[in-house]
Amino acid sequence: MVRVLKGQFPEARIALQYNNPWELLVAVVLSAQATDKKVNEITTSLFRKYPRLADYTRARLSKFRNDIRRIGLYKQKAANILASARIVQARYHGKLPKTMAEMIALPGVGRKSANVILGNAYGIVEGIAVDTHVRRFAMRFSLSESDDPAKIEQDLMHLLPRRDWPGFTYRLIEYGRNICPARKHACAAHPLTRLYPSAARRWYSPR
Length: 207
Hints:
With about 210 residues, this protein is mainly alpha-helical. It is about 55% helix and about 0% strand. The chain is elongated and about 55 Å long.
């Protein structure tokens, strides 16, 4: 699967747009239950309006909510982003922390988000980011018998060499978007399904 995915999407990478580690965190928090395209539309103007971490620490919650109101769950996301900004400024002197334990302690940052941020901001590989595409294909291709992203991540980490952890996520995302979407369809001839024909009969739609 790794070999096929590398052949299909050799340059696969994160689709979110950002200029520095803090902006990556903002984009990742905004991306929960939202498309990368919508996030990039919002952050284009957001990052111009708030170019520095200090702009977030001084922002009024009501005003910041309005700045991101076009994204789903904007009220909670606004609160999490501004709270994280204050923590990063006060506790880490304005620099994002570089450990999993510190990252997941920030409001709105779970293990999947922390994997994305650490990997792309610092090149630190702690695990595998399990998004809806990765979760779906892990079930369909019998890579994990669990429905829980945390367990799926552990199963994938045992199966894959560490060097392939980051790329596996982004290549599966591209595969799901461009070749094998979540809606039911005939996929027996798809590149990965040819490796594991049973996947054509193992439909799994993430909730």
